[in-house]
Amino acid sequence: MSEELCFATIEELSDRLARQELSSVELTEAVLTRIELHNDEMRAYITVTREVALEQARQAEREMRDGNRRGPLHGIPIALKDNVATAGIRTSCASMVDPDWLPDEDATVYTKLREAGAILLGKANLYEYAFSMNPAFPQPLNPWHTERSSAGSSSGSAVSVAAGMAHGSIGSDTGGSGRHPANVNGVVGFKGTYGLVSRSGVVPLSYSLDHVTVFNRQVVDAAIMLEAIAGHDSRDEYSAALPVADMRSRIGNDLRGMRIGRARGYTHENIDADVERVTNEAFEVLRGLGAEIEDVELPYVQNCVALQQSIMLPEAATVHYRNLRESPDKLGEAAIMRLDLGNSVPATAYIHAQQVRKLMRAAFRQLFETCDVIVGPGNAVRAGAAGEWTTELDGQTIDLRQVGPEYTGIYNLSGNPAIVIPAGFSSEGTPIGIQIAGRWWDEPTVLQVAHAFEQATEWHRQRPPLPVG
C-alpha cells in the first residue's frame, strides 16, 4: 500500500485527499519512509526535512477537514533542488563554500508552492551551484541502472520523483540541466517560457539562461505544478508581467491537424541507435494520433555550443566572482576550471553571442509560423557511465557538454517552453525521452501534445527496479 501511495500521481492523490479518503499525514509518512529506506543508497536528497514535512502535513489535514482546500497541490509531498532558498532550512548548493547556509527568506517558487499547500520533503542533490560535479556531494544514482548516469545538474530532483521519493520536484535548467535528468531517469521535466516562473531566491548560474523546471511522473501533474509557480514577481527583473495561462486547458484534445516539426540540423545527427529507434517510434505514435509531421531545420543549432559557452561561462564567473577569489579552496576542481574559463571570455564574444541569440529568436518566430510544436530527441545519446562527462558513440568519444547545448540548450537560448517525456528504453534498460518545444507563452499546446503521446503509450507507467519499500 505504501509503495502504491509513493508512485501515485498528483492528480490521483489530490482527488483522494479532497474526498478525505486519504490524509496528508498518511501520504507524507509513506514517502518519508521510502526516503529512509532508499536515500542512503540513491543520494537523491542532501537534506530531509522530516519534522517540517509532518507539521505541514498536519496543517494541510486540519485545513481540508475544515473545508479549506487550497487546490490540487494541497497536501502533496514535493522536493526542492538545493539551490532554492528556504528560510531557516539548510540550502547547501552542494558546495563546501557555505554548506550550512540558512537563508533569511524563501525563494518565490517555494512561497508559491506553500501557498498552494504543498509539503516540503527536503532539498534535492545537484551539481555544485548547478554547475559542475563535486566529489564532496556524490551524485545520485540512476534508479533504473545504478552504473549509468543520472545526469545533471538537477539529478536529485529527477531521481526523487523517479524513485518514488517525491510526487513532484523543482529543479533549475540553464542548458538542459533539468531536462537531461528527466530524459535518463524516466520522468517528465518541463521548463516554461523564459520569464514565466520567477527565479528570485534560486541561486543563479547564468541569469539570462536560467529557468525553473518541474519534475513529475505524468504530464497533468507537470501542468498542475507549473501553473502553481508561474506568474509575475517584481523581485525577478526578467519576470514577465503577463497573465498565467490555464495550463490544463488543452489537455485531452486530440492531435488531428496538429503541425509538428521534426527537429533537424544538429551537428551530432548520428545519434545513438537506441535513441534513433525510440524517436522514430515516437513519431509513428504522433502520426497515428493525427499529427502532420514535417522536417524543420533548427535555426543556429550548430552555433549553440559556442553561444552557450560565451554567455553562460562569463555570467557564472560574475555570479561567483567573490567565491572564486575568497574561497577557491572550498570550490570543487571542476567548478574552478569552468569559472576560470568564464573569466577568460572576451566581452566582445559575450556581446556577439547575445546578438546572435536575438537572430535565433527571430528565426524561431518565423519557424513557428509553419508548425505548432517542434519534436526531437531529448539528447543524442543514452545515459552514459555514472560520474563521467563523456560517452562512446560509433567508436568516438563524445563530450556530453558539447552535445547538450544543441538538443536542450537551444531552448534556453531562445527561451521557448520545452518538455521532456518518457518515450522508451535503451538496450541497457535506461529511459530515453523525446523533447517537445512550443511557441513562447504557449505552454498549453506543448502540454496537449505531450499528454496525447503519453496517454497513447505506457512508458510513464513504468517503475524502476528498486526494492519494495
Describe the structure.
This protein has helices at residues 2-7, 10-18, 24-42, 50-65, 108-115, 155-162, 179-185, 219-229, 273-288, 304-319, 321-326, 333-344, 347-367, 400-414, 443-456; strands at residues 45-48, 77-81, 119-124, 168-173, 188-191, 211-216, 259-264, 292-297, 373-377, 390-393, 396-399, 418-425, 431-438. The protein is α/β, with parallel strands linked by helices and 469 residues long. It has one domain: Alpha-Beta Complex (Amidase signature (AS) enzymes), CATH 3.90.1300. It has an eleven-stranded mixed sheet, sandwiched between helices. It has a two-stranded antiparallel ribbon with strand order 10-11. A hairpin with a 2-residue loop joins strand 10 and strand 11. Helix 3 (24-42) packs antiparallel against helix 4 (50-65), helix 6 (155-162) packs parallel to helix 7 and helix 10 (304-319) crosses helix 12. It is globular and about 55 Å long. The termini are close together. The mean pLDDT is 95.
